[in-house]
């Protein structure tokens, strides 16, 4: 079964279930899915029941849904579409990295696999999107990382691996501070309220709420 053979709602649910744990988060429960999609828990239960009947998830009472291999393949196909579209919008159409998420949420459902493959080739097969999230291959292969949150990082040298795109306001503020994927920085001080970093000799104080959106890689530090 391919992504285009299931409904847009099913595509969204499968992608959300997979994405919740990509960066070390907890599995997404029915209650969290209801909050994510602005619907009732009863509606979520009906969608999950259909996904279970299609063999795309496994349901256990009082436990979060678990993707089957087929469900995971569709989820990764949707993630691939989303991230390639975001990359295309930024690199080819001049969008800001804080403008593309909602656009991609719409376009990912309309794009064919052929179009997505053409975009991938046109962009030179990028490894990650503008926020640093890895782009799955056409075969579903995707890089995994064990990052450190800037909000929890010890003093030391790091490279920015990824910035969460959940809030465009946060993205805008981090861009102003120069905290972008692949940027090298030194954490020089951390309190409960903020983290002080050095980026190319320039000091920036990043509020804890912003630092919680930044994922670092010590292994890639300069």
UniProtKB/TrEMBL annotation:
<comment type="similarity">
    <text>Belongs to the DtxR/MntR family.</text>
</comment>
<dbReference type="InterPro" id="IPR008988">
    <property type="entry name" value="Transcriptional_repressor_C"/>
</dbReference>
<dbReference type="InterPro" id="IPR022687">
    <property type="entry name" value="HTH_DTXR"/>
</dbReference>
<dbReference type="InterPro" id="IPR036390">
    <property type="entry name" value="WH_DNA-bd_sf"/>
</dbReference>
<dbReference type="InterPro" id="IPR036388">
    <property type="entry name" value="WH-like_DNA-bd_sf"/>
</dbReference>
<keyword id="KW-0804">Transcription</keyword>
<dbReference type="Pfam" id="PF01325">
    <property type="entry name" value="Fe_dep_repress"/>
</dbReference>
<dbReference type="Pfam" id="PF04023">
    <property type="entry name" value="FeoA"/>
</dbReference>
<keyword id="KW-0464">Manganese</keyword>
<dbReference type="Pfam" id="PF02742">
    <property type="entry name" value="Fe_dep_repr_C"/>
</dbReference>
<keyword id="KW-0010">Activator</keyword>
<dbReference type="InterPro" id="IPR000835">
    <property type="entry name" value="HTH_MarR-typ"/>
</dbReference>
<dbReference type="InterPro" id="IPR011991">
    <property type="entry name" value="ArsR-like_HTH"/>
</dbReference>
<dbReference type="InterPro" id="IPR022689">
    <property type="entry name" value="Iron_dep_repressor"/>
</dbReference>
<keyword id="KW-0963">Cytoplasm</keyword>
<dbReference type="InterPro" id="IPR007167">
    <property type="entry name" value="Fe-transptr_FeoA-like"/>
</dbReference>
<dbReference type="GO" id="GO:0003677">
    <property type="term" value="F:DNA binding"/>
</dbReference>
<dbReference type="InterPro" id="IPR036421">
    <property type="entry name" value="Fe_dep_repressor_sf"/>
</dbReference>
<dbReference type="GO" id="GO:0003700">
    <property type="term" value="F:DNA-binding transcription factor activity"/>
</dbReference>
<dbReference type="GO" id="GO:0005737">
    <property type="term" value="C:cytoplasm"/>
</dbReference>
<dbReference type="InterPro" id="IPR001367">
    <property type="entry name" value="Fe_dep_repressor"/>
</dbReference>
<comment type="subunit">
    <text>Homodimer.</text>
</comment>
<keyword id="KW-0238">DNA-binding</keyword>
<dbReference type="GO" id="GO:0046914">
    <property type="term" value="F:transition metal ion binding"/>
</dbReference>
<protein>
    <recommendedName>
        <fullName>Manganese transport regulator</fullName>
    </recommendedName>
</protein>
<dbReference type="InterPro" id="IPR050536">
    <property type="entry name" value="DtxR_MntR_Metal-Reg"/>
</dbReference>
<keyword id="KW-0805">Transcription regulation</keyword>
<dbReference type="GO" id="GO:0046983">
    <property type="term" value="F:protein dimerization activity"/>
</dbReference>
<keyword id="KW-0678">Repressor</keyword>
<feature type="domain" description="HTH dtxR-type">
    <location>
        <begin position="6"/>
        <end position="68"/>
    </location>
</feature>
<dbReference type="GO" id="GO:0045892">
    <property type="term" value="P:negative regulation of DNA-templated transcription"/>
</dbReference>
